[in-house]
Amino acid sequence: MHLHKYEKVWLVFGLASLVLFLLIIGFAAFWKGTHPQSHIETIDPQNVEANESFQPDNLGLTEVADGKYVVNIVASAFNYDFGKEEDGTATKTIRVPKGSTVLFQVTSKDVVHGFQVAGTNVNMMVEPGHISRFESVMKNDGEFTVVCNEYCGIGHHLMFGTVEVY
Ligand code: CUA
């Protein structure tokens, strides 16, 4: 079979770009730790309290084992509910020691929100009716801003919080 020169060039280009994009996906998945969030777990967005994780008293940070934490968050327009401090004010900062494993569990009461902990590999889409889970090891210390990265309405830019790794 005879292949025209341009056809060969085009074949090589096609194969090379396939390999290149597979390498990029592999790098993101295995080196940078980018993975899809959880599996399809459903919840009634009108009644998130029916799920134990999202009852008001269970929101925010809980240490479940030595160095292992769970953070439950309810997103709504335009706030992240991280539970309350002992004095009754809304929690805005989650504090965990460096090296700890943190499972973030987020759901939405209304529209699609985002949940990104900028500077870490935590980046989820939060859809009403679903529970978004992502576990991450907090390797670096510092203050990381939690931002909503899905446009959710007029107060979109007001949705933020902080994860402090000490
Ligand atoms: Cu919530 Cu944008």
Automatic annotation (TrEMBL):
<feature type="domain" description="Cytochrome oxidase subunit II copper A binding">
    <location>
        <begin position="17"/>
        <end position="166"/>
    </location>
</feature>
<dbReference type="InterPro" id="IPR051403">
    <property type="entry name" value="NosZ/Cyto_c_oxidase_sub2"/>
</dbReference>
<dbReference type="Pfam" id="PF00116">
    <property type="entry name" value="COX2"/>
</dbReference>
<keyword id="KW-0186">Copper</keyword>
<keyword id="KW-0472">Membrane</keyword>
<dbReference type="InterPro" id="IPR008972">
    <property type="entry name" value="Cupredoxin"/>
</dbReference>
<dbReference type="InterPro" id="IPR034214">
    <property type="entry name" value="Ba3_CcO_II_C"/>
</dbReference>
<dbReference type="InterPro" id="IPR002429">
    <property type="entry name" value="CcO_II-like_C"/>
</dbReference>
<protein>
    <recommendedName>
        <fullName>Cytochrome aa3 subunit 2</fullName>
    </recommendedName>
</protein>
<keyword id="KW-0812">Transmembrane</keyword>
<comment type="function">
    <text>Subunits I and II form the functional core of the enzyme complex. Electrons originating in cytochrome c are transferred via heme a and Cu(A) to the binuclear center formed by heme a3 and Cu(B).</text>
</comment>
<feature type="transmembrane region" description="Helical">
    <location>
        <begin position="9"/>
        <end position="31"/>
    </location>
</feature>
<keyword id="KW-1133">Transmembrane helix</keyword>
<dbReference type="InterPro" id="IPR001505">
    <property type="entry name" value="Copper_CuA"/>
</dbReference>
<keyword id="KW-0479">Metal-binding</keyword>
